[in-house]
Amino acid sequence: MNPFSRAAGKIAPLDCSNVDTDQLVPKQFLKLVQRTGFGKFLFYGWRHNADGSPRPGFVLDDPAYRDSKILVTGRNFGCGSSREHAVWALCDYGFDVVIAPSFADIFYSNCIKNGLLPARVSEKDAHMLMQDAEAEVDLESQTITAGSHTVPFEIDPHSKKTLLEGLDDISRTLKFEKEISRFEKDSRIPSVL
Amino acid sequence: MNITEKILARAASKGSVSPGDVVFADVDKVMMHDVSGPGVIKVFEKLKKQGINVEKLWDPSRVWVAEDHFVPSAEKISAENISKLTKFVKRYDIGRHFRYGMGQYGICHTISHEEAMVMPGEVYVGGDSHTNTTGALGAFACGLGHTDIAYVLLHGRIWFRVPETYYFKLNGRLPDHIMAKDLILHIIGEIGTDGGAYRAMQFGGSGVDAMSVQSRLTLCNMTTEAGAKCGIVEPDQKTLQYLESRGATNMRPVTGDADSEYAKTFEYEADKLEPLVAEPFSPENTRPVREAPTVELDKSYIGSCTGAKYEDLRAAARILKGRKVKIRTEILPAAISIYRRAMEDGLLRIFIDAGATVGPPTCGACCGAHMGVLAKDEVCISTTNRNFPGRMGHVDSKTYLSSPLVAAASAVTGRITDPRDLP
Is pLDDT larger for residue B104 or for residue A185? Predict the structure, then answer.
């Protein structure tokens, strides 16, 4: 995983709450397990007719929002199944950041594991950002700057560190293997009390 | 500490923990199925390329695998995934593999309790969001993504933020026409699909004490639809007997302290509850069945980890006995052990006499995979857990979620029907 410090680019606004993972990647694609190439399945049901032909009108297909890097959306984004494919699809499509008032738990954790920044902002700020064309997101200072305004975002310290270092749990465990085993040895409860 | 805090404290070898603490907890059991398993295999391949040692699992005897989402294989890719998963099981000497069409098999969350795969007091993680189900046995049970499962397979532990607990107290025994499904739909309707976000949802009170283990499983199953980290019920004599009768020994149950604290308590009176449906397209769109709009149904689906346990089938049989279905009615017992019992007790005959069909244990149409998916504009009443757009098939189909009693009563009339209103 590459370290994440800042991202900048076009905003795609998706003004709805409770976007579930069935919408992000429909079930027929869950059988495919390559981690790349999922971008074309993102929001498939909203972007295609039943026969597979393109269904115009979805925000990501509007030329104004092509190549967006930042998705701004409503509360409880990513609810539903634990499918990590949902995050793979967002990353593969080209998104670096998803901004929302809240995220579903497993989805949030999957984002961190794949280097996608889930930035929590207030409902008001989310709606404001949906009006903006571009933004710059800085993870260290936890701020989003769009035009003349800058708003803060929330992220838990553990996830922030993971993204900044580009270390997933596995790499981190390997990096700190010695420290962890020393800690465990020192803090072990004596077996005879 | 409450039960969730006590389980996590024990798993993290700490004297005590509080909500918000981040702990590194030992995991007791890990589960993967035919969607998450191949995903985990991919993560292993990526790690291997990075030079990380993936030669051995931390403890293969604590890992189990179920084939449930895309079985029986309808096309080649699903078949390939099952084959890949089978090789992985052999390669890593994984403890139990519930193979479709071989001995015991069925939906992973159903296998978890039918086969006593998880014990009270354990930390159990699975590559599926409805892993919460098994918290009904008094375990800390939650779903994880593929990368996290891969991590647990290698290290046997994982980070958890200790959740705050919401306590849902049910006073009084549920009346005959009300099922646990009605209560959990009622709760989701009240708190919303993110109302339990990152919280433990604990169920208790005289009504839950009086409930069967299977009803408690229904409650915990749909905590996922409220966004909860986990659902949990304190284990009691019933829980232990349920597991013992399925071969469990050496259980180390945990219960909350007398001064357990909860972030919030919600209280319900059993005799005030109504049979409910959740209307499309969200489990929080609940409404009493008697106030539901008159819609022509195309299908009644009685299946899934939520609504096809033995007790669910018995409830449906109570309604269908001596009656005929007016719409296509598909009943898929959630595990072959349940299928067998339904056969021995005559339930299958009741279903077939009523004109319904009985299918094999699989997630099937619940996740829109296969085995009865919906066409454009079709309307289904279903004992499953989600009714998002396109969840059970075409993006323009509609699903109403309900209890097995309501789904069976609706099968008889072809409209959404309260079981009390059947002629």
Answer: B104
Closest partner residue to A84 (CB to CB) among B147, B369, B394 is B147
- pLDDT recorded at residue A169: 73
Residue B78 to residue A31, Cβ atoms within 8 A: yes
Domain carrying residue A176: 6-186
- Point out the domain boundary residue: B240, B268, B296: B268
The arithmetic mean of pLDDT across residues A149-178, rounded, is 85
Which residues in chain B come in under a pLDDT of 50?
none
Chain B residues closer than 8 Å to A110 by CB: 145-148
Which among B42, B81, B193 has the least Cβ separation from residue A76?
A: B193
Residues B199 and B249 in one domain: yes
The answer to whether A169 contacts B388, with C-beta atoms less than 8 Å apart, is no
pLDDT tens, residue by residue, A57-70: 999 999 999 999 99
Whether residue A192 has pLDDT greater than 60: no
Distance of CA B260 to the CA centre of its chain: 26
Q: What is the chain A residue with the closest CA to B78?
A: A31
Name the CA dihedral angle for B291, B295, B298, B302, rounded to a multiple of 10 degrees. Answer: -10
Which string of DSSP letters, residue by residue, matches B169-205? EEESPPPTT--HHHHHHHHHHHH-TTTTBTEEEEEES
Reply yes or no on whether the pLDDT at A188 is more than 50: no
A80 contacts B388? CB cut-off 8 A: yes
Please tell me the pTM assigned to this model.
Answer: 0.93
Cis peptide before B24 (omega within 30 of 0): no
Measured between beta carbons, the chain B residues lying within 8 angstroms of A160 are none
What is chain B's alpha carbon radius of gyration, rounded to the nearest angstrom? 21
CB contact under 8 A, A34 and B42: yes
pLDDT of the residue at A50: 83
Q: What is the overall mean pLDDT for chain A? A: 89
Contact B240, B253 (CB under 8 A): yes
Q: How far apart are CA B222 and CA B185, in angstroms?
A: 8
Q: Is B47 in the same domain as B183? A: yes
Q: What residue in A sits closest to B364 (Cα-Cα)?
A: A27
* Structural domain count, chain A: 1
Q: How far apart are CA A75 and CA A20, in angstroms?
A: 11
The complex's ipTM works out to 0.89
User: pLDDT-derived band of residue A189, with 50, 70 and 90 as boundaries?
Assistant: very low
Q: Of B268, B292, B311, at which residue does a domain stop?
A: B268
A45–B389 CB contact, under 8 Å? yes
CB contact under 8 A, B128 and A26: no
Residue B194 and residue B108 in one domain:
yes
Asked whether residue A192 is assigned to any structural domain, the reply reads no
A residues 91-130 closer than 8 Å to B (CB): 102, 104-106, 109-110, 113-114
Q: How far is A50 from chain B (nearest CA, A)?
A: 8
What pLDDT shows up at residue A178? 66
**Chain A residues lying within 8 Å of B394, measured CB to CB:** 50
Q: What strands lie across the sheet with B96-98, from one edge to the other?
A: B96-98, B63-66, B29-32, B123-126, B140-143
In the sheet that B164-171 helps form, which strands lie side by side, from edge to edge? B230-233, B199-204, B164-171, B264-269
Whether chain B has a CB inside 8 Å of the CB on A142: the answer is no
B249 and B280 share one domain: no
Residue A173 has pLDDT above 80, yes or no: no
pLDDT computed for residue A184 by the predictor: 58
What CATH code is carried by the domain that includes residue A40? 3.20.19.10
